[in-house]
Amino acid sequence: MWRAFCAYFPITLVKTAELDATRNYLLCCYPHGIISTGAFGAFGTEFAGVRDVFPGMEPVLVTLPQHFSSPLVRDLALCLGTVSSSLTSIVNVLRNPLGGRMAVLMVGGAAESLLSRPNKYHVILRRRKGFCRIALQEGVPLVPVFAFGENKLYDRVANPRGSGLYRIQEFLRSKIGLAPVLPIGRGLFQYSFGLAPRRLPVTVVVGAPITVERVAEPTDEQITELNKKFEDALVKLFETHKETCHPGENMELVVE
After folding, report:
1. Listed residue (197, 173, 187, 28) closest to 111, CA to CA
2. Rounded distance, CA 181 to CA 138, Å?
3. What pLDDT does residue 160 have?
4. In the chain, how long is the greatest CA-to-CA distance?
5. Which residue has the higher pLDDT, 64 or 7?
6. Given a cut of 70, is residue 84 above it in pLDDT?
7. How many helices (H) and strands (E) does the chain have?
8. Which residues contact 156 (CB under 8 A, 6 or more apart)?
9. Residue 51 phi, psi dihedral angles, 5° rounding
10. Which residues pair with 103 in a beta bridge?
11. What is the distance between the alpha carbons of residues 104 and 30, in angstroms, rounded to a whole number?
């Protein structure tokens, strides 16, 4: 099933730098998109070749705690080896004494899915600094990851910021943790509308690790500095690969 899932788009995993299998890493993926298809296919399954691309490394997807609350969804999440986005769970992965663990975190989260559009990438980074605090406290490298094509798999019902629909969606997200997005994809036998994702390629590019020195009690200035350093690395990764992944398109990246 997962082989067919990755082949459907298809999903391709691209490495730009080596990762030391004796260390643990915090991979921060953008964009979230509607359902994080690229990150899931690349790191939640074996069929984008993650163990061949990064030998000796084991990816661990980080997902919302709500996914562990209902029986069927919980069992699927556990079978896929995912962990909760709680601090305890993430730190447990990053402290593996043997190394070789990649905690894969969608930093923009559910709030970013409300901003997903096919014609641009809109990511939430500057006001998300918790991942920088964790990296500093644990002394683990940060790795920027960008899923090119993620934004094209779905459109969504128009709901500009400030609209009544957007305010309702944001209110529900703040209460339940999940964003009630109204996606527009394709159908099984036609391409105009439906809930299935569009069949378009997704290229997940893994950037070079950012070295982080361990700081037991990082200051706000140190966290902000690392957040800016990560933003610069993510933007550089996007600018380097956008023409290859979106040839002839004037694709824009908006960071907030």
Report:
1. 173
2. 34
3. 60
4. 56
5. 7
6. yes
7. 9, 11
8. 34, 114, 116, 117, 181, 182, 183, 184
9. -75, -20
10. 26, 60
11. 11
